[in-house]
Design brief:
Layout (H helix, E strand, L loop, with lengths): L1 E7 L6 E3 L7 H9 L9 E6 L2 H10 L3 E3 L1
Length: about 70
């Protein structure tokens, strides 16, 4: 499984990558600690079984889960 963290740009529905592709939950959790002060509704973790799927999700804004 692959993970990538994005934050919401201003008040738009645009998401900007804040991480590279992460492949372990431990690494994901360590990365998320850096953003703990950010409101949760402005932080999103995208997940996919392929790296290509992550880019697709960010472009369409689908299949992401709030953190």
């Amino acid at each position: 499984m692959y993970y990538r963290v994005a934050t919401q740009v201003d008040a738009t529905q645009t998401w900007q990558w804040k991480s590279t592709v992460l492949s372990s939950l431990d690494t994901l959790f360590q990365f998320l600690r850096l953003f703990r002060a950010l409101p949760q509704d402005q932080l999103r973790v995208f997940t996919s079984s392929s790296q290509e799927g992550l880019a697709e999700q960010r472009e369409t804004g689908t299949d992401q889960s709030n953190v």
